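Collaborator request log, item 7. Partner lab (contact: R.S.) asked for a structural prediction of MaoC family dehydratase N-terminal domain-containing protein to inform their binding assays.
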Amino acid sequence: MGKVFEEWIGRQRHAKDTVSIAPLRGLYAALGLPAREWQPGDAAPLLAHWLLFGEFAAQAELGDDGHARRGNFLPPVTLPRRMWAGGRLRFHEPLRVGNALTRTSTLTNVEAKSGSTGELVFVTVRHEVIRDDGMLLLEEEQDIVFREAAHIRQTVLPAGQRARTSPRTQAARVEPCFVVDDAGTTQWERFVEPSATLLFRYSALTFNSHRIHYDREYATQVEGYSGLVVHGPLQATLMLDLLTSSIPGACVESFSFRGRAPLLDSTPFSVRAECRGEGREVLLCTRDDSGSTAMEGVARLGKSLTNRADGVTFSETRSQPVE
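Returned to partner:
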């Protein structure tokens, strides 16, 4: 199947946007971060570019899963299920409020594989975000995987019994904490109780209409999940936010992550960070309530924590509710 799409490799598209205040305020509200008065020139948080360059496909152009139909930029892979498998980023300069930006996207690879769950097609897209003065701000590679249809086991409910429309109707909670293990390794852990509202708000912020994140009936009866799926980018955002909130002034040079298993809204999960490599490397992950890893990542810092002249202090922060 991969050879069928070789002609798609090298395709490009360009998008323009401006770093504005409204999506940053929305992200802070969704994650329960303290509100702030954004000013022109303020540095946007890492991964805020995912709030920009929305792909505003017309309603009639959407497929059954809520994504734009393939065959325009992405190849027309016939496998129905789509996931963001992982990515790699290099941060050169921060995005700042008011920056006019151009994103150039290039399809760099299409590869078919067979796995334990059936046929898979991996598509890699490279992005470059450039400021209007020509400065390259960040480079990114995204790995998108397409999979076969799920095998759904039909469950007949007893008469009069109604399926739950939402296992978590209360507000989600994000609870950061600071931990040091017995060996002296610096670690942090954040506990998150997700909700359908949190996933819906993040979908709205990123203009992501993939139905697995907000349409419970579709997610369970068509895609075969046992709940709504927590976005991969949302997990990655929580991971880097834990790092930057725990290490004030940290200079993140690169970040890579990959998904290992779906994370669902039906149970709490944790976000973890651990310093390695003399403070130059931070291992990150999300884990479900059973302790299984859902996503793992590595962030590399520009300065060693153990050699910093300004003396980093690590302080516990109080829980913040997410509406």
